[in-house]
Amino acid sequence: MKKYAYTVFLLLLFAQCQQEGNPRVFQSREEQVVVTDGVKFGQEFSLAYYEETTVYGNQVPRRLNLYVKYLNDSRCPANAMCMQYGNATVVLSASNSQGKSEHIELCIGACGTEPIRSTYSVTAAVGQTKYTFTLKEVRPFPGMEQEGEVKKAVLVVEKV
Asked: Which domain holds residue 104?
């Protein structure tokens, strides 16, 4: 009898965990990437976590593919009293048409021992071409989100 009750319990537990309709399909991270239309060098644009775009144009023959590998926002929410300001960090994967790639880390807010900053730029080479990557902001600011709103990094990329 105990064996029967245990089996029924396991079946009920398993049935409780099943979703209605289609079974859940697990995807690798690469399959979840959202690709946006390209933007021109020097143009402001925004990307969410796992979003990808191509930067091109302005008499630059090469294209630069950007992909947000990491986006974290630990800044103190609006209208809150915090002991630390916190920061917003974005890690980009930048690759050129020749297959050369670099990881670019950008941080605004209280980043390490440096003063609090509202924007941050870094110059890095992808292959033999240098670019300036600027993180202008991460929005929405903590505490100002609307329901369902996705965090996005506001960026500008320029060829040096």
From this structure: 31-159
Q: How many whole angstroms separate alpha carbon 139 and alpha carbon 124? A: 24
What is the total count of domains within the chain?
A: 1
Q: Please count the other Cβ atoms lying within 10 Å of the Cβ belonging to residue 137.
A: 16
**41 within some domain:** yes
pLDDT tens across 113-153, in order? 989 999 999 999 999 899 999 999 999 999 999 998 999 99
Residue whose entry in the numeric block shows the structure tokens 């021992």: 113
Domain containing residue 85: CATH number: 2.60.98
**CA-based nearest residue to 63, from 114, 100, 21:** 100
154 located within any domain:
yes
Match 């930067």 to its residue by tokens: 55
In the three-class reduction of DSSP (H, G, I as helix; E, B as strand; rest coil), residue 52 is classed as strand
**Is residue 152 one of the residues assigned to a domain?**
yes
Give domain status of residue 26, yes or no. no
Report the C-alpha gap between 120 and 44 in whole angstroms: 14
Distances (CA, A) of 80 to 21, 36, 39: 42, 34, 36
Reported pTM: 0.75
